[in-house]
């Protein structure tokens, strides 16, 4: 089978035609299909965001009516949260890289994996059809009784979210089983790439939390369709109960968004510092700890909602506790560079950016967790800035890093590194210009979800809008050179970054249809660069494969006998 | 597509290294799925608990509107069906395909009986206006029940929760019937053997869960 | 920015605002310092350990357990301080002094109504005495709203079928913005009002005046605050038709017929808005005014609309 070692046949070209994609069971192809889908969702959500920003350029009506504005930011959030950020890293990069990093031929349930993708598409389509049916405003939180007082569009959005939830549950379930049961010989839990650990923790949250949003939106749906009176005060129901249900899912959901980002950043930090990730065990297990603690803080979204003061106090305390493991992670990432050999390729630029923007988002999250301060800041632009710093500045920045990192492996092509660096700079600058002023105006009292505002906030809004343009230019530039690279890019080598995880060391670029010609045997941890010195003798780019059967193996060590299953 | 592990039994998918690995994976996947199901219902149990603790008298009074005899009958029917599934698995472990098929068909029939009884319960409620939320309008008398007496504050919530919980449970029974029809067909085709019966085992697990949920629903709604 | 406002926070005009701010600044500076340390370390390592030799593979670094422990213990202590402090201020913000002056606040799409113990009612402005604790007892007629006065650092949701409350004590006379901060529909951002804090004697005078019978048209002008989100009085069209010059004209209706806008029609349009729908508009005017407004207020509205040229 030496033809595939020469990169002639791979998962992209072993089979042709649209059908071979639509019905594929190959996790890599499913990952690519997700990439296309979530990029479109991001593009649509982003364009809505740009419109929202333009409207806010000046007080009063600028380009759209109040109703149009209210629907725009709602749709922006629904698209970004449910159709983009939740599937972004796990479903794209998880699907592509996780099985290969594990040394498996596929995920445990490939058919289910493909089904998840279509369930996601169907859910997104149902949610979008709300646009045709009627207005949907009120934000992505759908607080009752407002949400049940508007038109029937809400029925479609809730149904769509319900369906997309299943996709998320099934993906999580698939990954948990895959991680437990399909690791290659020698790949003990201590040797797993941190990306796997974080996807694993994410999957746990997906499986445990998503059913609750399922039942919540189902009840909301029934409330709207049949006035069942569980949440509607006019019928004796309790609107605050809805908020509890909603946040019981939606707070853990923020960890569904950020944990995969932690994983990407860990991998990038290790690889580009060519160094063991500092505090490996802590970084790995704290993801799981954060995942569990994350279930106990939902009430911090409800400090002014009329929940009991005692619960507020408990929620506030646990909220801080989450900051501590997260903080230790941040510090470990920084420490990874210490006495390392740090290289600034574009994926690493994103990892470094992430440390900056995510930390700001995290610290402001802690401020919001302080009871007395949150009373002032709740539902102002301070909160808007906080969550864009963690979601856009955390998850999306990390996702961009991951995309740049795995792109050569996915497509077999190299993008233009200079353009990538320019774009990274534009994104960083534009992002901060967009959202930093929002902290200030929020603390000054500017409420969120406001179509119109008092003149004292105009300056901040203008800066923010200009920032969104810079950010937009940066993102479009990325889309441009990535697309160009597919057609005109230079051929990527086997392991351009000198990484040590299996997708770089044990398979071709792009990978073979079955991932490996021979099941790899793992003999070292994902970041044990010092045990792999021989790979770097000729420079930064590694051009030989390990353990590919036909004599390509250069591994001196004997295969470990440790049992891989737990 | 090539199958590199041609030395494996036919039911092993090419991406698994062994039959055990495939079986373990399927079983773990099923257990995780059951966890999500429990969480789905737990949301409703939380709503139940909250409303019950707010309006205990209403709930105690309205549970008498439900027919505990029919509910009890359904409990027995479901317990019976859980038993037949277990028996079916027992048979196939011994390689007795006929025993499996008979028990699968019995289970399917039990599930059908459950839904028929549910149908009668529902239609009585609907006829007398014991409906969720805005549609709640109890009226009429039958079999010695004066339904109008159920017109108490927060009555609609009780019936919202009753219908939502039993409705979603009933939906699971329906899905179960579909699953049993499907594996019965596979069993008749001869897909299963003492070495390979993972789908039967997983459907059985699912069915036990549906049964257990009912074991909770029945006393909470009908009896207390 | 006013007296004690800053780039970050608006003026602090209530007795508790200062305490909230002190906590804010503590957390702000603690965070900024830790953040700066992280960033400085990061940049230093980036420069110092940048790759110069492509073949160099560094040795792993023995992790310092002490350092790791410091990173856990230090933030824990810090967060516990902040927690206790935040809790104390939170308790104060939540317990109104027993001698507070009480005002009932009713929220509805998209206006506020303030009812005083003496019987007076106001809409766009809430008068309060300076130097005396004021407790608001709040309730909503429709969906969720939230009462927010940035200068006082107070906020609380306003919920239908349930009473919630906040309190404050204004320290200086002046006007302070009230925002609605829970999304409540089209005009959510227009649901603003002002707190007017005045010395106690001036407040007493105002209350006395207000509680007397106003001429109907003036009462109507006050109640109009609840209509302004949709109806202008300057002739421009909004969600609903302008009220200017409405009286006495012949109105085309959506069903093709016409009607003369006399007193009866005006009253009917307010208490039963679905009866006759004006041409070119959606039937979205709320029907609740028949129950939320008193007959006197309704008369006042009609009288007020008649005065509009
Ligand atoms: C993942 C989550 C996410 C992301 C990424 C964003 C991104 C952005 N958001 Fe959004 N936002 C939310 C989630 C998100 N938002 C949520 C949950 C709310 C709350 C809504 C509510 O109140 O209910 C909100 C609300 C919100 C508001 C407040 C509205 C209000 O309260 O009135 C504003 C205002 O400035 C805003 C702006 C922006 C901007 C300018 C971006 C920019 O970063 C967008 C930049 C993106 C583009 C310009 C698109 C370019 C993309 C491509 C070219 C595709 C190429 C593909 C690849 C590179 C792979 N957002
Ligand atoms: C990716 C998503 C994400 C992430 C990771 C987080 C992380 C955190 N969030 Fe955030 N949050 C959102 C998404 C997210 N959030 C969204 C979408 C909303 C608004 C929803 C809506 O209303 O529409 C929100 C709203 C929100 C609120 C409610 C605000 C309000 O409405 O009034 C609160 C309050 O406690 C909060 C707190 C926190 C905290 C404490 C963290 C922590 O996990 C952060 C931990 C990180 C750090 C602390 C930084 C690194 C630490 C160090 C370098 C060490 C030193 C640290 C200390 C000494 C503390 N968030
Ligand atoms: Cu009232 Cu927003
Ligand atoms: Cu949260």
Q: What do you see in this structure?
A:
By secondary structure, chain A is mostly helical. Chain A is built from 17 helices and 2 strands. Chain A is globular. With 224 residues, chain B is mainly α. Chain B has a single domain (19-223), classed as Up-down Bundle (Four Helix Bundle (Hemerythrin (Met), subunit A)), CATH 1.20.120.80. Chain B has 6 helices and 2 strands; from the N terminus they run H-H-H-H-E-E-H-H. In chain B, helix 4 packs antiparallel against helix 5 and helix 5 (155-189) packs antiparallel against helix 6. Chain B is elongated, with a radius of gyration of 21 Å. By secondary structure, chain C is of the alpha+beta class. Chain C folds into 3 domains: 17-93, no CATH class; 101-210, Cupredoxins -  blue copper proteins (Immunoglobulin-like), CATH 2.60.40; 216-307, Cytochrome c-like domain (Cytochrome Bc1 Complex, Chain D, domain 2, Orthogonal Bundle), CATH 1.10.760. In chain C, helix 1 packs antiparallel against helix 2 (65-94), helix 4 packs across helix 7 (295-307) and helix 5 crosses helix 7 (295-307). Chain C is elongated, with a radius of gyration of 28 Å. At the A-C interface, helix 4, helix 9, helix 11, helix 12 and helix 13 of A face helix 1, helix 2, strand 7 and strand 9 of C. The structure holds heme-A (HEA) (2 copies), dinuclear copper ion (CUA) and copper (II) ion.
């Amino acid at each position: 089978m030496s033809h595939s070692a020469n990169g002639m046949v791979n998962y992209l070209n072993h089979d042709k035609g649209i059908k071979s994609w639509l019905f594929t069971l190959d996790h890599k192809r499913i990952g690519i299909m997700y990439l296309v889908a979530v990029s479109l969702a991001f593009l649509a959500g982003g364009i809505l965001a740009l419109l929202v920003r333009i409207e806010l350029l000046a007080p009063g009506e600028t380009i759209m009516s109040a109703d149009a504005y209210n629907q725009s930011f709602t749709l922006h959030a629904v698209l970004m949260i449910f159709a983009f950020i939740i599937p972004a890293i796990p479903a794209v990069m998880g699907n592509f890289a996780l099985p290969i990093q594990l040394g498996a031929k596929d995920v445990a349930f490939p058919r289910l994996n493909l089904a998840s993708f279509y369930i996601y598409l169907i859910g997104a389509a149902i949610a979008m059809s709300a646009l045709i049916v009627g207005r949907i405003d009120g934000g992505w939180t759908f607080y009752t009784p407002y949400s049940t007082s508007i038109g029937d569009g809400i029925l479609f959005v809730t149904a769509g979210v319900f369906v997309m939830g299943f996709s998320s549950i099934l993906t999580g379930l698939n990954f948990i089983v895959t991680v437990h049961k399909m690791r290659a010989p020698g790949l003990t839990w201590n040797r797993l790439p941190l990306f796997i650990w974080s996807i694993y923790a994410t999957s746990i949250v997906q499986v445990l939390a998503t059913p609750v949003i399922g039942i919540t939106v189902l009840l909301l749906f029934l409330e709207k369709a049949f006035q069942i009176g569980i949440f509607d005060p006019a019928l004796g129901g309790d609107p605050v109960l809805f908020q509890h249900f909603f946040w019981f899912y939606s707070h853990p959901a923020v960890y569904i968004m950020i944990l995969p980002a932690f994983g990407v950043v860990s991998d990038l930090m290790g690889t580009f510092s060519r160094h063991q990730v500092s505090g490996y065990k802590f970084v790995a297990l704290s993801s799981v700890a954060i995942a569990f603690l994350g279930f106990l803080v939902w009430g911090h979204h409800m400090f002014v909602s009329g929940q009991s003061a005692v619960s507020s106090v408990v929620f506030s305390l646990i909220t801080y506790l989450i900051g501590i493991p997260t903080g230790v992670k941040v510090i470990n990432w920084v420490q990874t560079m210490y006495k390392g050999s740090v290289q600034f390729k574009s994926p690493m630029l994103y990892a470094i950016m992430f440390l900056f923007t995510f930390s700001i988002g995290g610290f402001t999250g802690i401020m919001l967790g302080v009871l007395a301060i949150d009373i002032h800041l709740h539902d102002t632009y301070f909160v808007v800035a906080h969550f864009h710093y963690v979601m856009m500045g955390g998850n999306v920045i990390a996702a961009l890093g991951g995309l740049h990192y795995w792109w050569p492996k996915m497509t077999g092509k190299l993008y233009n590194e200079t353009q990538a660096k320019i774009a990274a700079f534009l994104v960083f600058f534009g992002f901060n210009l967009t959202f930093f002023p929002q902290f200030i105006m929020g603390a000054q009292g500017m409420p969120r979800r406001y179509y119109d505002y008092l003149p004292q906030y105009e300056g901040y809004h203008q800066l923010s809008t200009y920032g969104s343009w810079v950010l937009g230019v940066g993102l479009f530039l990325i889309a441009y050179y990535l697309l160009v690279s597919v057609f005109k890019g230079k051929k990527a080598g086997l392991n351009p970054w000198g990484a040590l995880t299996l997708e770089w060391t044990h398979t071709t670029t792009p990978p073979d249809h079955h991932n490996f010609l021979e099941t790899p045997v793992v003999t070292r941890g994902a970041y044990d660069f010092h045990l792999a010195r021989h790979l770097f003798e000729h420079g930064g780019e590694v051009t030989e494969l390990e353990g590919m059967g036909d004599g390509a193996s250069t591994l001196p060590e004997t295969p470990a006998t440790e049992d891989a299953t737990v | 597509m090539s199958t590199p592990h041609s030395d494996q039994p036919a039911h092993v998918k090419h991406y698994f290294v062994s039959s055990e690995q495939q079986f373990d994976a399927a079983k773990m996947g099923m257990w995780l799925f059951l966890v999500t199901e429990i969480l789905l219902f737990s949301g409703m149990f939380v709503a139940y608990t909250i409303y019950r603790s707010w309006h205990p008298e209403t709930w105690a009074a309205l549970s008498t509107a439900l027919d505990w005899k029919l509910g009890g009958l359904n409990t027995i029917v479901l317990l019976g069906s859980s038993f037949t599934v277990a028996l079916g698995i027992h048979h196939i472990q011994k390689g007795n395909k006929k025993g499996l098929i008979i028990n699968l068909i019995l289970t399917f029939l039990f599930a059908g009986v459950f839904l028929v009884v549910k149908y009668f319960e529902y239609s009585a409620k609907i006829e007398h206006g014991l409906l969720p939320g805005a549609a709640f309008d109890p009226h009429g008398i039958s079999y010695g029940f004066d339904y109008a007496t159920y017109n108490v504050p927060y009555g609609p919530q009780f019936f919202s929760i009753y219908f939502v919980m039993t409705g979603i449970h009933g939906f699971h029974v329906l899905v179960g019937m579909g699953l049993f029809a499907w594996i019965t067909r596979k069993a008749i085709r001869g897909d299963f053997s003492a070495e390979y019966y993972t789908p039967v085992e997983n459907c059985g697990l699912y069915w036990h869960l549906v049964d257990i949920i009912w074991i909770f629903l029945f006393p909470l709604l009908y009896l207390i | 920015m006013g007296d004690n406002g800053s780039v970050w926070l608006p003026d602090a005009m209530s007795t508790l605002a200062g305490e909230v701010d002190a906590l804010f600044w503590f957390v702000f500076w603690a965070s900024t310092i830790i953040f700066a340390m992280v960033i400085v370390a990061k940049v230093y390592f980036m420069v110092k350990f940048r790759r110069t030799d492509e073949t160099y593979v560094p040795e792993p670094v023995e992790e310092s357990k002490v350092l790791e422990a410091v990173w856990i213990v230090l933030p824990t202590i810090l967060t516990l301080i902040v927690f206790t402090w935040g809790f104390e201020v939170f308790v104060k913000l939540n317990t109104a002094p027993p001698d507070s002056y009480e005002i009932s606040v009713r929220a509805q799409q998209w206006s506020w109504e303030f009812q005083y113990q003496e019987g007076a009612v106001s809409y766009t402005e809430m008068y309060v005495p300076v130097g005396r604790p004021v407790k608001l007892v709040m309730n909503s007629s429709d969906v969720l709203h939230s009462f927010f006065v940035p200068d006082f650092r107070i906020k609380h949701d306003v919920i239908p079928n349930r009473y919630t409350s906040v309190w404050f004590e204004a320290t200086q006379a002046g006007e302070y913005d009230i925002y609605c901060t829970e999304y409540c529909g089209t005009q959510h951002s227009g649901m603003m009002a002002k707190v007017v804090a005045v010395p106690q004697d001036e407040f007493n005078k105002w209350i006395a005046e207000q509680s007397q019978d106003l001429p109907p048209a003036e009462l109507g002008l006050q109640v109009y605050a609840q209509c302004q989100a949709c109806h202008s009085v300057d002739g421009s069209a909004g969600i609903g038709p302008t009220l200017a010059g409405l009286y006495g004209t012949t109105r085309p209706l959506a069903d093709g017929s016409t009607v003369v806008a006399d007193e009866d029609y005006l009253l009917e349009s307010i208490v039963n808005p679905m009866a006759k729908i004006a041409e070119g508009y959606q039937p979205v005017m709320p029907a609740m005014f028949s129950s939320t407004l008193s007959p006197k207020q309704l008369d006042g509205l009609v009288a007020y609309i008649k005065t509009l040229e």
